[in-house]
């Protein structure tokens, strides 16, 4: 699931991962949310966190989004957040 994917692509982040329903409660200038819910991404940003809107599974499966390109965009955004 999610933990295995994160461990494969972002192993350094695994120890800093928090899973839960009200994700906005963890928002801060030092936190990033990766989620396919635009509503949760927006709330997280409103509470001061960084957020990346991950495409939903159907967009990836239908080929509307290329997963490798999305991962590269995510990596670039994480680099930018680390500069803050």
What does this structure look like?
The structure is a single chain. This protein is mainly α. It is 46% helix and 10% strand. The chain is built from four helices and two strands. Strand 1 (32-35), helix 2 (38-46) and strand 2 form a beta-alpha-beta unit. The chain is globular and about 35 Å long. The N and C termini lie far apart (30 Å). The mean pLDDT is 86.
Estimate the mean pLDDT confidence. Answer: 86
Strand order of the largest sheet: 1-2
How big is the Rg?
Answer: 13 Å
Largest sheet: 2 strands, parallel
Shape: globular
The proportion of residues in beta strands is: 5-15%
Distance between the termini: 30 Å
Main attributes?
84 residues, mainly alpha
Give a short summary of the structure.
The protein has 84 residues and is mainly α. The chain has helices at 2-9, 38-46, 57-61, 67-83, and strands at 32-35, 50-53.
Topology overview:
Layout: H1 2-9, E1 32-35, H2 38-46, E2 50-53, H3 57-61, H4 67-83
Parallel strand pairs: 1-2
